[in-house]
């Protein structure tokens, strides 16, 4: 499938898919990469070392620093796929050098948990 | 986005990781906001200075970045959490001071002008009309677009920082003359026209407007009201500029009912333990006004007055400092009401202020109640 590139890069790995938006400031432990927002559908899961898909980010723009901390603590996602590029996720991926792409709704619905994918966020393709 | 060959190379890391990071940020924000290219800017004003706003992760990020990054254009900064000269008189924990120190050092190492002010438009010369700048402080961005003849988006901390490092910004939103044209008019229908009313008008406008809004029924605005309008607008929404007079498109009235609704939302107490003046910080003109209003009177409660350090010598030489201190005021430089750790909910339950922006952050970030009233009323009720 074709995607819009927001932050360039390449990654291969298995997918972790969230239905709910993510609040990086309050929702994720920046030291461990574990989702600690009890209301989130990924509660208790580790978001590191996977390609993370979620609709969009919400909450304070300071959440961008959480992505940076995750990367610094070696527990950041390999790449991120969103439905909509909010500025917090876009800035956070940019300063942390995490590839970020945006898909349309139909393609987003085809992303299934644990599926192995290769994301090329230079040419803008997922295979 | 179309990038030049030089921009592509910098993005690929050929000029080092700091510049690659800055270009990645500009491109990411540009792609997300529909920009087609980057354009040069002459001045960046950064937010994300107070340790209370960026926390440990922000502190660490800036510390790593400052190891080799340097600002490329004139770069000024927002207030921090406290005034280093007077912090020993406040009961602030050493850890906060240490963290704030680290942030300050990182910015200064990258070559910032140490302004620590949210009113850059009052303390620096304004570039020529139509110049593109990149202002992350919301009241300053709105002021720049609406009064100073400059062009900026209501930048975020990261886009302004990336602009400071590269001298560029994505060409989107308010950098486009078509988007600067308001498509909504707010008709000012309230008679009382002090700074508090204008602050609430701004807060209302910010909630209902898109990128740009027209305001009719307003004629002469003094400096205090003008800043209050910009700060109120910047607090409640995404709107980044306004024009005066009736524009095209939809019209909405700002009347007594709307005013009351906003007052009810922001005013949560009928009195307070502490007065804070300055969000935005008070400039030379407002400090002069305040000194005059306080002639022969004294505050009956503690009153914190926040200013930029740039005016310290002037207000001292003009005798204003002595007059404000005689009246019981505590003058603080380099910091502001918003998110200051000096306003601690363990020590005060409720704060008196004339600032709509201050009221919003006191309530949501400092977790104190707010008694919101005009400066005139504060002088009448809280001084003798």
In short, what is this structure?
The complex is a heterodimer of chains A (127) and B (384). Chain A is an alpha/beta fold and 127 residues long.
Q: Could you describe the 3D structure shown?
A:
The complex is a heterodimer of chains A (127) and B (384). Chain A is α/β, with parallel strands linked by helices and 127 residues long. Chain A has 4 helices and 7 strands; from the N terminus they run E-E-H-E-H-E-H-E-H-E-E. Helices cover 23% and strands 25% of the residues of chain A. In chain A, helix 2 packs parallel to helix 3 (87-96). Chain A is globular. In chain B, 42% of the residues lie in helices and 15% in strands. Chain B is globular and about 65 Å long. In chain B, the strands form 4 sheets. Chain B has a 5-stranded parallel beta sheet. In chain B, strands 8-7-6-9 form a 4-stranded parallel beta sheet. With 384 residues, chain B is an alpha/beta fold. The chains are: A alpha/beta (127), B alpha/beta (384). Chains A and B meet through strand 1, helix 2 and helix 3 of A and helix 2, helix 3 and helix 7 of B.
Entry keywords:
heterodimer, A: 127 residues, seven-stranded mixed beta sheet, B: 384 residues, five-stranded parallel beta sheet, four-stranded parallel beta sheet, 14 strands, 42% helix, globular
Biggest sheet strand order of chain B reads 12-11-10-13-14
Strand and helix order of chain B: HHEEHEHHEHHEHEHEHEEHEHEHHEEHEH
Question: Biggest protein-protein interface?
Answer: A-B, 24 and 26 residues
Q: Could you give a short account of the major beta sheet of chain B?
A: 5 strands, parallel
**Amino- and carboxy-terminal Cα gap of chain A:** 7 Å
Q: H/E element string of chain A?
A: EEHEHEHEHEE
Beta content of chain B: 15-25%
Specify the oligomeric state. Answer: heterodimer
